[in-house]
TrEMBL record:
<dbReference type="InterPro" id="IPR010273">
    <property type="entry name" value="DUF881"/>
</dbReference>
<protein>
    <submittedName>
        <fullName>Uncharacterized protein YlxW (UPF0749 family)</fullName>
    </submittedName>
</protein>
<dbReference type="Pfam" id="PF05949">
    <property type="entry name" value="DUF881"/>
</dbReference>
<comment type="similarity">
    <text>Belongs to the UPF0749 family.</text>
</comment>
<feature type="signal peptide">
    <location>
        <begin position="1"/>
        <end position="32"/>
    </location>
</feature>
<keyword id="KW-0732">Signal</keyword>
<dbReference type="GO" id="GO:0005886">
    <property type="term" value="C:plasma membrane"/>
</dbReference>
């Protein structure tokens, strides 16, 4: 009698378990719709970077539109003294809040190709990618060459711009970007090129370009249209609670 009960439970339980498993697989297939439910880490990271970049760009455009509205409302309050208006324009040109056009150079930096990475498994991975200091070296060289304006990834660079690495992406004005990195400068093309050639850091970078095929390309441009800087100009610094900092001179900014 006991043996009969065990067999009966097995005959009933096994088909039920198979039915549940079939329903689970069918539900997963329907939800996936042919896509991978567990994408690779790199794919997820790249998608996240692109999504955050789009969101940040949208917020920057909204900020720029609101700033223009504020300027229009301020102009409606009354006419501005011509001398003051000229001074404001000159300062805007220096700061980088007005668009500019002119000849210049575009430098493009890229990580080593995937096949080079596979062929050199014992090489330090840091030698095969573009870093913050590589981008900064190009920017500093272009400033030293007398650049009138510089942009990275088509975003205007000003004196307070910070460039930093976060994972395998570079963050500019709080927005993450993946390679290739495009650095554009407006100015005398001959002087800009000479400044790049004279940079000791870029000379060192060229060694990795030769050894590991890192991307380093310089293109001469007869006419470049560069947008105005549209971010905030406010400077913020951290403070220690309960500690009163003594007034000091304004901090200096490396670069231009």
């Amino acid at each position: 009698m006991r043996r009969f009960r065990r067999i009966s439970l097995w005959r009933v339980g096994a088909p039920l378990a198979l039915l549940c498993a079939g329903l689970l697989f069918a539900t997963s297939a329907t939800n996936a719709r042919g896509t991978d439910l567990r994408p690779s880490r790199n794919t997820t990271l790249a998608g996240l970077v692109e999504e955050q970049s789009r969101r940040s760009a949208s917020l920057v455009r909204q900020h720029a539109a609101l700033t223009q509205d504020i300027e229009k409302l301020q102009a409606q309050q009354g006419s501005i003294d011509p001398a003051l208006a000229k001074q404001l324009k000159d300062l805007s040109d220096e700061v980088g809040t007005t668009p500019v056009t002119g000849p210049g150079l575009t430098v493009t930096l890229k990580d080593a190709p995937s096949e080079v990475v596979k062929e050199n498994p014992d090489v330090d991975a840091d030698w095969l990618v573009i870093h913050q200091q590589d981008i900064q070296a190009v920017v500093n060289a272009l400033w030293a060459g007398g650049a009138d304006a510089i942009s990275i990834q088509d975003h205007r660079v000003i004196s307070t711009t910070g460039i930093k690495c976060v994972g395998n992406s570079v963050v500019l004005h709080g927005v993450p970007y993946l390679p290739p990195y495009k650095i554009t400068a407006i100015g005398d093309r001959r002087k800009l090129q000479q400044a790049l050639d004279d940079s000791q850091y870029i000379e060192n970078l060229q060694d990795y370009v030769v050894k590991f095929q890192l991307g380093y390309d310089v293109k001469s441009e007869s006419s470049i249209s560069m947008p105005a800087y549209e971010g905030t100009l406010d400077l913020q610094s951290a403070t220690v609670p309960g500690f009163e900092r003594t007034p000091s001179a304004s901090p200096t900014v490396s670069g231009r």
